[in-house]
Specification:
The protein is α/β, with parallel strands linked by helices. The protein contains 9 helices and 8 strands. Helix 7 runs parallel beside helix 8. It starts with 5 loop residues before the first strand and ends with a helix. About 45% of the residues are buried. The model has no long low-confidence stretch (mean pLDDT about 95).
């Protein structure tokens, strides 16, 4: 019998009805989630988040490195030339939070091509910077038992200037980094927009996949909302491959979050889960 998949509520996207991160943890637990993830928890005191996780018996499974200075247009610093010190400071903060929350995965954000610069002309330098930073991060994270992740983000809809865009580019970089605790973050939304060919890409890169995220394409709403991706098929594929990690629900609810969770309740019921 195939394994059952494990889902995590992405609290940067779900439960916007709740104002604070601790309140969102509580709301996720109330709907049956045993795990959550969040992009940037850093505006909330870590002890407050930890307290709510423990109180509700919920696991934090993923956080991101800090984005940098959002007002300056930054969205991660991993591949940004000349920002290695800032990347390392952000990594230190992410590790501090991850350790306190017993979180075993950190998404190491690549960042954007600097404004006014042509991507083709800076790709080589940015890739070298990213590889250097990922090797540094891998050594830090290995001491803490934490998995580092890189995530391609599409530049067709979501972020035209993001440096890391396709699974193929990400895999080539990971091969050059060559660290066992550096893995690929499969965000089905981004992969479908950039390359499609989901079955073959998932099969080909499965040994490198350390985390999965989902949303319908192109609206980035619930997986069962109208769109391009057949998530029943994707879930079955991941089950058949024996995926044992988490699937982050990183989508924008069309309405109330709880009202839009019918797809998950259907999955749980079909697998004999609560």
């Amino acid at each position: 019998m195939p394994i059952s998949l494990h889902f995590a509520a992405n609290l940067s996207w779900l439960f916007p009805e709740a104002q604070t991160l601790p309140q969102r943890v509580k709301a996720a637990a109330a709907t049956g989630f045993k795990a959550v993830e969040v992009a940037w928890p850093y505006e909330t005191e870590v002890t407050e988040v930890k307290k709510e996780l423990e109180k509700n018996k919920v696991e934090m499974v993923l956080i991101n490195t800090p984005p940098g200075i959002l007002a300056r247009g930054e969205l991660g610093l991993g591949a940004v030339v000349g920002q290695q010190d800032e990347f390392r400071s952000g990594l230190d903060l992410a590790v501090k939070y991850a350790k306190a929350l017993d979180c075993k995965r950190i998404h190491l954000m690549a960042g954007r091509v600097p404004a006014g610069q042509d991507k083709a002309s800076v790709t080589k330098k940015m890739e070298c910077t990213f590889i250097e930073n990922l090797k540094y991060a891998a050594d830090i994270l290995s001491k803490e038992g934490i998995l580092g992740l890189v995530e391609p983000i599409n530049n067709r809809i979501t972020d035209p200037n993001y440096f890391l865009n396709t699974p193929h580019q990400a895999v080539q970089i990971l091969q050059k980094v060559d660290r066992p605790n550096m893995k690929l973050q499969l965000d089905v939304f981004h992969w479908q927009i950039m390359d499609g060919n989901l079955t073959q890409n998932i099969n080909t890169y499965f040994p490198l996949i350390g985390h999965v995220q989902i949303a319908q394409v192109p609206g980035r709403n619930e997986p069962d909302s109208p769109g391009e991706v057949n998530y029943s098929y994707i879930f079955n594929l991941l089950e058949e491959l024996g995926y044992q990690g988490y699937i982050g629900c990183e989508y924008a609810p069309k309405g109330n979050t709880v009202d839009g969770l019918g797809w998950l309740k259907t999955y749980w019921n079909s697998r004999g889960q609560p």
